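lol ok so funny story. i was supposed to be doing the assay writeup but got distracted and ended up predicting the structure for this chain instead. priorities right. anyway since i did it might as well share w the group, maybe its usefull for someone
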Amino acid sequence: MLRRSLLTRLRHTMRGTALIATLAATVLLPNTATGQGSPPAAQAQPQAPAQQPAAQPKAGAAPQAPANGQPAPAAKPAVAKAPVSEALQTIRDRLETIKADLEAREKSITGQNVGAGDLTRARDGLDGLADRLRAVIDLLTPRLEAARERLAQIGPKPKEGEEGEDVARERAEREQAVNDIDGTQRLAKSLLVQSDQIVDQIANRRRAAFTRGLLERSSSLFSPDLWVRVAADIPRDLSSLRYGLDDTVALFGRNGSLWNLLVLGLAFGLSFALYFGRRNIAPALGRRDPNVTNPSKRAKLLGAWRVLLLGTLPAIAGSYAIYYALDATELLPARFLPVASAILGGIAFIAFVEATADALLAVNKPAWRPAPVSDAAAWRITTLAVSIAVVITVSKSLEALNSSIYAALPISIATRGIGAVAAALLLAIGLHRFADTAEKEEECFGPYVATETSPGIGGPLRLLGWVAVAVIAVAPLVGYVALSAFLVDQLIWTAAILVLLWLLIVSADVLIGGSLCEETRIATTLQANTGLRKRSLNQIAVLATGFARVVLIAIAALLALAPWGLDSTDVFSSVRTAFFGFKVGDVTISLSAIAFGVGILVLGVLITRAVQRWLENTYLPATDLDAGLRNSISTVAGYVGFLLALALSFSYLGLSLEKLTIVAGALSVGIGFGLQSIVNNFVSGLLLLWERPIRVGDQVLIGDSEGIVRRISVRSTEIQTFDRSAVIVPNSNLISGIVKNRVRGDRTGRVIISVNVLRNQDPVKAAEMMVECAKAHPDVLKEPPPRVVFKKIGDPFLEFELIALVIDVNLGQKVQSDLNFSVFKTLADAQFIPPMGPASSFITVQGLEPVRDALGQIASAVGNSATQVIASPAATDSQDEDADPAPRDAARRASQQPQDAARRRHG
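and the output, tada:
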């Protein structure tokens, strides 16, 4: 340890010496009035004038000639040196002050017995010094670049020959200016590095002290030696307690004047009045009427806040009044003031727990309960919370008493250990009661049916509670009493923060979001005075509640991390610092760093998913953006969040871009061979999100598949066809293939209906009737108007096409069906379409005239032969014909009807 201390001091001494030498060299450099001077090569020239008086001859003496008889060469004129400019000198003076401050801070934390107060004092103000140094560096950077640019304009110094006197002087001045500014900036950078090193040293010392105190092992509660020492130390501690009580009585008699007693009595009276009012008057002022069976969520939260504040603030005020009176009147020894503070603070803490449980759980008023828990769970949580608060109060009070009487270490260990074990047992009892199951009858001869769990704490939270119980209960049994007591404190502290965080978040959602989203007086006033639409107020409400959630969660995180030895000024740097680590050769492997890195990545991904869900379900639906743009925004937000989480994780692990180039180079080979398709689809997905040729909700036709785009992901796009099936298309196909987007420009569609009208009807009138049918439909656009195209003049029919534009392409089939019904009814009523039946079908066969003539001749010849054959019986039947000619005429007409029909069919 001594060797390490000497090495540390030697290193700091060498560092300070180097800084002082750098500063001295910078200050001693001559400068011009504008901050310019000579180059480093000319720094030795100022010594020449100092030696010249000794070599100069006396007055009146002849000058000495050189030994070789040649005339002496003319001496080069010395370059005039000017002091540093006033602005640069001011900066240097400021840096000197900062340097002295940093050296004092570094010296204060390099000792062996450095306490938490010393570290805090050394840490305070370092951020301001670092900001000032960064400001100096930023201020000198453009000046240095300008000075170097002016020096570069002169060009390089010639290797052969001598340059002109004016050029040499100008070069020296500009080089001196560059050196002055560069030296000042280097000094600022070195001081900035020193300040960062001091911050790291303070963080390391704090972490080491916290870890050492937290993981310090003491005697186990199962150790007989501990209880032997406790029994041996009890008489001494009781004697110390008796002496303390005697001192208290003596101090009370010495300072117990009438005025002090009056002040103390008023304090106790005020405290009792406040506690009495809290127990009896506050519930009435909470204004939670038990007769109201269905209060609004806003009324529940306001009632909860009234109960919480009226139940907590009077207790805090009463406890503070008593403590202030004891401190002001000096009726209690100073060493017992922490005991009074612990007792009074514990009573206020119990009151806070009772008020919080009553506000959120409302055991006797379930209608006013803001928390979504059952009656049994509310009663159990209230009993458990109050019991643990009482145990914590008693434990803290005993610890304060042990400290005030300077109790022996074994007694302090036993007191803290017993308190932690008692808290763990209460928590275990509560968790066990939450695991009670409700009875349920099983059906006879049926399968096993699991019993229903009673409503209460959820499974993951209950499992976390059992883990905490196990750690808290086992730690003092194996000697880690400080760790057990610390975990109990953090469990209570974190639970209180989470409860208040939930209440604040719900209140922000209801009070802020509800006031702007619902038909409230505030929303109506804003709409009337500002002209904002309801949709705009909804967006403002979403943003306001989101911002409130972020602020509340950040504050809660800082409060939860504060007891873990983290300072609010360097939370992020402390989080990135590993608590433990081990070396394998020259490589330091920190498991905590790896775990934190993975945790940061997982947390970033979870936050990204939460932000995406908030955008998709809450914020973006409240905007006027179309579905495709909302999907693009949500997807890009997911990519950006994942990349940021990945970058933060790599930054925490210390993986820079230079170190990742090797991995990227190795992956490039795999990408070139095996991952071409994946990269192609990924880049195509980015192009789809950026150019947006296809958006979510578009109706597209890709090959034989037509449907609606439902989702555009990294690798593929999901299209839902009209038969409710999903088609997964790689993004590269959408970029390089042919895609028909029916709603790329707008969502209007076209409907075409083919109509045939009888040839003997007026085509103009038929077209007008079809156009009127289209104009009468509500989903057909008025501009451009529907029109009729006369497609063909047929033999029996005239062919038309009715073309109409609909407001949405998804309505195309519906509009087409409606127009078919309407056009058919209109044309049928006007007899432009022949009625249904055999007469409505005409078949025209051309080119069969010779066949018709031949059949006619055959029929005539057959008819003549038949006439000659039946001529003889004709006379016999003449009487019958004269008797009844009507049947024969009917038979003749019946035989001729099929022949006439056949002739009509054949032309």
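The chain is about 65% helix and 5% strand. The CA atoms of residues 536 and 623 lie 8 Å apart.
back to the writeup now i swear
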